[in-house]
């Protein structure tokens, strides 16, 4: 039997050092100067392939003369590589235990395998997750395929080249700046990888088996789901986030007016148009006051607890630089809290505390900020840092001036100096929020019209009602940051990504019916016919096949579109309610499949000779691994449709997560009989009629004489081939739950081109 577990579908490395004598293992040799690791080809496989369900980089490498130099034959290599990358000890590799790869390295393994692990580790150290990797012999001596998980293509490509340089340097006992290499890759990760807020939503979608597609090479625009079931997110904004609501939230004065009109507690205040007007407003409201921009975000240009005219005039000027106007409001005693509301429900809450330093009698305020505050590893300028570094901005200057200090002052030893109020949103207080306050936050979000909002609320005790302590909502933010809730300094993380996904997909999983078809012959015909049946059933159907790209019966692009790009574009189309894709072996090998999973996977037949010789495919077993990819992608609630005449396809039955439906023109095949005995469904021909067979018996669908396609010969020239293509299409339609009438009408009216 050819059936194997997916994790082992590519086989094992060909070499074993247990076959070498002790003298051979101990012998060391000098590496030729011209020895190299050459990249013959590098491909980005965008989707599921023979390797894994996820995108990978596949590099064909030629190690040349290094084929004669496994790691144990290179003096000092093991020690040098371990010193360069001590974290390689975490790689379990063949032995399934910590240090497994280092053990392989010490016993002896080849450069391609080493390249795989070093690439993975450089990615990990740079901040890109992913631990999948493979190194397998490609056929010609010294040529291997090295496969590495690629969350982001640019990063993994760069990591692959950096790994090559590191491995060669370690072999030749030459210096290599590992830290510089990691820093270079980390910059690429920051530039190209998803931000933490978006990543947590994508991870939550993945946990619910909702497909996702990144719509930009870099940036945070992501599609969740396919076709008519898709939704889009952009960081913490969704396609349900109203543009009007975002505009309202940016206008702080308008937001406050709307909230106040609906009885939501907000601070008294008004918009001002000059420093003088700001002072007049402050006097009317009563000191102290808060001065802030009309339309800024993330607390920029906000000055609280302002008590003097001089401070108000300075704060006005600074606030005006951050926005298109200035508001003066009553200063509310207490701490600032950030409440996250998603879909009308309070999901998380954080409390902000003041940032302060303690004087040592020697260092300036500026120096103490760096050594006591900004040194915190949680602080940084990237999206991956839950706390921002503190700059000596105007707000800091005003706070220091109140304390008769400047950034260059040297505070006395032991003196506490306030640097920023509400600078540390790091204390999770979700469980402490009073129910009434949670309801007010949800109401405020509905008033503005946001589906996801960050509510800035000031009060002394979040566990008590706002009314009894004079608390109020001071700001509502669209697209709020999620990191403070994912990585609070104190308290437990909150499942904010899951809450957003549940909000977007309260019903369903973002999937539309997807049918994938592969095989050696007949793929295009089966695709055309299945798409026809789906269209008749009332679903607007996308089809990407060798005949072109179609939406229903409308030809969008003529020519061969049986490729990843055409299928990918189909899944981006909101009009598409079902999709059918032709996946030839070349597509699986060269680009991967466009979808993550499918409801129905069809394999028409397998002729190994037709595929051997393509892209280092040398054996029937390798052809088996290519074709089984379509079976591997079938959902648990879906079905694989397999040709019962093909022993290789029968061997795939145990590999499918879903149901198996067999088809063949001969009802007496042993495979069909055995399948029916165990309650399986089958489609076959009996006495000139297409029959649907299940545990309840056989149902006559239609006479072959009424099916025009059955009068034609197939791609391989055999008269019965088109009949089998019709049977495969009928089986796929049956798996999709289409009615007998739809199937009958569809195949009776389908005319071959």
Summarize the structure in words:
With 753 residues, this protein is an alpha+beta fold. It folds into five domains: 10-191, no CATH class; 196-238, no CATH class; 268-327, ATP-grasp fold, A domain (Dna Ligase, domain 1); 335-504, ATP-grasp fold, B domain (D-amino Acid Aminotransferase, Chain A, domain 1); 514-749, 3-Layer(aba) Sandwich (UDP-N-acetylmuramoyl-L-alanine:D-glutamate ligase), CATH 3.40.1190.10. 34% of the residues lie in helices and 24% in strands. The chain contains 24 helices and 30 strands. An eleven-stranded mixed sheet has the order 23-22-21-24-20-25-26-27-28-29-30, with helices on both faces. Strands 17-14-13-18-19 form a five-stranded antiparallel sheet. β13 (335-342) and β14 form a beta hairpin. It is flat. The model is unreliable at 1-28 (pLDDT under 50).
